[in-house]
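Quick entry between incubations.
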Amino acid sequence: MDKARRIINNVSPCFFYTKKLNKNHMRTNINFLILFTFSIFIIGCSQKKEEPKQPEKEIYTDLKEGDIFEISGRLICAHCFVLNKDNIEIDHQLPREGFVKDCAITCAKQNYPIAILLDSPVDRTSLWVIRTAGDIFADYMTKTLTVKGEYVYSGLIDPTSLKVKIGDEWKSLKLKKFDMVM
Amino acid sequence: MKKLIVLALMLATSIAFTVTRAGDKTYYGKLVDSKCYSMMPKMNAGNDHMVKGEDGKPMQVKACAAACASMGIPVALLGENGKMFVLALPAGQLSQVMAKNAKITGSEMNGVLIVDKVEIQNGKKWEEIKISYMM
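Done. Structure below.
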């Protein structure tokens, strides 16, 4: 029995539960536990959370009239952006009117042409006007919009489907009925 | 003192003139509905259009360009060389003058025309259309 205990004490890291220990043994075991816990912590931290893969962006080359393609960008008022490149938020600074609060929303409601501003250009263009009534975007200005539609010319897309990003979710936007018939 | 005031006024006027007109050009063309026109350019350059009906068959829509503009579909200027520019203004304000010849003063970027002045041809005359921006 004593022999068995002696073997367990030498092997198990938890032998201090079973027997009185001398100071050196105790210190070794505490060091071991600290090292063990620390390594678990390091391993846990180093394992990155696997992020869901984003679908790769299609690179469009040589687009022609009528081609279907999809682009994503920030919803902005084309008019105000052309006047001042800083006008990508809701409030704008205009050359004549000065500071205009909620300008982007007002512009959309008044049916100014609404566009999306892309992070990287498609067909050498970053500003794409969406060929539809601007008022459907009034509640979503400055949000990210994905537009699928027909290429008209570089900078003008005729939408067939619209999705706006709200928080982490994508919401489909309805085109006006008149748009859908044509 | 009077001379000084007159001089200052003249200077201010000239500066204001330079600021508002810098980069502006005059564009001539016809006001078209940007949507219908590119679907059937030959048929849809006027006010009445041929569109695809709900059953998929083509149908004629009277005063379609005016209706589209009223709905907010961007209005475009079809240039004499066939190039189309989207007009950066509230579409509804041009609904009554669709398919007319227009002279637009403004500046262009990326196919978007920032409009300073809209004039419509009426016989031999050009009549200005007042655009209210309401911002």
